[in-house]
Amino acid sequence: MIALALLVAANLLSLDDALQSAREHQPQIRQAQANTAAASARAREALAPMLPQVSATAGYGRQIATGGAAGGGTSGSISTSGQSFVFPNTFSDSATASLLLFDFLSQFNRLKSAQASADAQAATERATALQVDFNVRAAYFDARANRALVKVAQETLDNQLKHLAQTEGFVQAGTHAEIDLVQARTDTANARVALINAENTYQTSKVTLNAAMGLQGPTDYEVADVQLQPLQGEDLPLERLLEEADQARPEIQSLEQQIRAAQLTVSSFKDQYWPSLGASAGFFQSGPSLDELGWRLGAGVTLTWNIYQGGLTRAQVNEAQANVTAALAQLDLQRLQVRADVDAARLAVRAAKESLSATQEALLNARERLRLAEERYQLGVGSGIELGDAQLALTQAAAQAVQADDRLATARAQLLRALGRQ
To answer: pTM here?
Structure first.
């Protein structure tokens, strides 16, 4: 909210401001960061069994025994029909340490698998950031285009008001028919409606931009007329662009790490077919009272071999191998998607460039047409319909030029996302 308040105070929002706001406030990024932190914590959890384990316990117990069997340290007794019952206290405490010596790399591979999963989640976080950046750019350029369309609508209304004033004078002078005045009033009313709709669309697009930035607040600011400059290598052949995308796209990096994690999981489960070796040492005390505790030290080595667990390990291996196969297929699918993304964005940039050039030429011609129509109308050789058609053609040409510029900016943002550039 503070960031948006500062933007509103400045009353002008730049693209860099919008991107920075999204990187700081967008919940998708915070969620991805939290997922990465959780994956890193799971990697540390996988390390714990390989480190020394130390534990301490203390206990107190009370028993019921017949007289003579209780020994010392009784806290009370009851005699019934010649039979004596006593209630001895028992105190105990211990401290033990244990260490896994060797398990045929089962736990080690589990640790490496968890680390690979953490790396995969970190790459997913980068993919989320790329998508958030694209969403902001797309929303920003849409709002910028809608602001330009408001300007087009305002200029159209201004022209229509000028034409209306001229037509009123001509009709009063008797040089033009009254139908021209009716037509001029209709065109002016339509221009007012178009301006209202354009302003509403602009405000709505800023609501969408606020959501892309991860902010809640007013929309009483203006978006700056920022141009997205030509991208380095945007005209390169598809194969050259694909080389960059394959190296940079975090989705591919994430899946590669997921495959590595799954393969290490397979190895970890296979290693469970073999025994594990551990060592332990401890200090123990027990006695009937706290001042009569006897102590002892102990140490040992334990060999554990799960010979048969109902086929559990084999099932775990099969599951992990299936996960590897699924991850490999997902990676192939992702590479197909990357190719489609890059190719579509590259073609969109090329088409938008050509379209922008054509619309600029059309806009120049439409302006000239309106100028000639206005001169003809003032000289009395042109009709109101001709003038209205020329104004409509200019409005449409101006709108097409704005939309072509928006398509080019959005296509470049799409290419940035497809290439894995932020």
So the answer is: 0.84
Among 12-26, 31-45, 382-396, the minimum mean pLDDT is found in 382-396
214: left (phi over 0), alpha (psi -120 to 50) or beta: left
* Helix (H) / strand (E) containing 120: helix 106-173
Asked whether 150 and 202 are in contact (CB, 8 A), the reply is yes
Distant-in-sequence, close-in-space partners of 228: CB < 8 Å, separation ≥ 6: 15, 137, 141, 408, 409, 412, 413
Rounded CA separation 407/344 (Å)? 13
Tokens of 305: 């071999």
Query: Phi and psi (nearest 5°) for 378?
Result: -65, -30
User: Tokens for 298?
Assistant: 């102990």
Pair 43, 68: CB distance under 8 Å:
no
DSSP 56: E
Q: For the chain, how many helices (H) and strands (E)?
A: 9, 8
Segment 242-273, tens digit of pLDDT: 999 999 999 999 999 999 999 999 999 999 89
Q: How many CB atoms lie within 10 A of CB 225?
A: 12
CATH architecture for segment(s) 2-51+103-276+307-419:
Up-down Bundle (1.20)
50 contacts 278 by C-beta, under 8 angstroms: no
pLDDT tens column, 204-222: 999 999 999 999 888 889 9
Q: Which residues in 244-340 belong to E strands, given as ranges? A: 276-287, 294-304
Report yes or no: 100 and 384 within 8 Å, Cβ to Cβ.
no
- H helix or E strand, kind and range, residue 37: helix 27-47
Domain positions in the chain: 2-51+103-276+307-419
What is the identity of the amino acid at 223? Answer: V
